[in-house]
Each structure stands twice: as C-alpha cells, then as structure tokens.
Write a structure and sequence with these properties.
By secondary structure, this protein is mainly alpha-helical. The protein has one domain: DsbB-like (Bromodomain-like, Up-down Bundle), CATH 1.20.1550.10. Helix content is 66%, strand content 2%. A two-stranded antiparallel ribbon has the order 1-2. Strand 1 and strand 2 form a beta hairpin. The longest helix is centred in the middle third of the chain and has 29 residues. It is elongated and about 55 Å long.
Length: 172
Amino acid sequence: MGCPVKCPVRGPAGPRILYGAVAFAATALIGFAIYLQEVKGLEPCPLCILQRYAYVVVAAAALVAALMPTSGPRVVARIAAWIGIAFAVAGAGVGVWHVWLQTHPPKFASCGPSLQYLVANLPLGRALPRIFQGYADCTEITWRLLGLTIPAWSLLCLLGLATMLWAAQRRR
C-alpha cells in the first residue's frame, strides 16, 4: 500500500531535489572557501584552487541537471550529473593527494612563488595566470575544524557530493 500523498523525494521530482541540493551545497562551499580567503586571510595553494574548480563544475552540472524537465527522456540531466560525479571524484583525488602531502610533507615544500614576488617581478600579463594558480604552501596546515584540515574536509565534501549525484541517478 503506497502513500496517498506524493512524497517530494519520489518520482521525477526526487532527482531534481537532490541535484538542487548538490548545486546549493557546492556553491555554499565555494562561498566558504572565498570567506576563508578574503575574511580570514587564508591563502589558497594550487591544490586548493584545483579543488575549487571541481566544486564550480559540480555546482554547474548539478544545476543543469536540476533545471531539466521531468517529462520525457532525461538524457541531458543524466549526462550533466555524470560530469558532476566525474569532477567530484577528480577533486576528491586531488584532496587525497593534498591530505597526503600535509601528513607526509617533503623536506623542502613549496608550491610556487608568493603573490608579492609575482606582482613585483612579472608583467601583469604573465602574473595574472599565475595568481589564479594559488600561492600558499600545499603542505602548510593553517586551519582545522574538529581535527580535520581544509583539504580533508574538502575531500569528504566532494565524496559526499558525488554520492548525492550518484543517488539522484539511481532514482527514476
């Protein structure tokens, strides 16, 4: 015997809610990263920047999947979701490497020159692309929450987003 009221997580609307939740969560996590950078002064390293790119693609793919119509074939939504899953897993892979670097730092760790060096010594055309690569040390631990570093939290969040996208794919 089924539920007489249509539940919001069943049927065609179910995946759309999950896709929307993933888009919202990924966007909120990007916002939190920008908050940590701009307000708390935590500079991102190149691996952090790569993970941010993964969040952007995951958010965009989930938003596309959420906005697709529920009637008819949902091929575009499924393709978008699988793209989101692929980028979330790739971002999680970067997160694994980042956590490993932080727990097993090399003797001489540096992910690139500082922002001050770039601006002072390179023309703007060459400095701008380097600025978007990030300029903090990838092995440096600058912030923790419940004992986990930013890369560890990012790894867990990306795996969670991939799982939610996969769950949305399983709903019909």
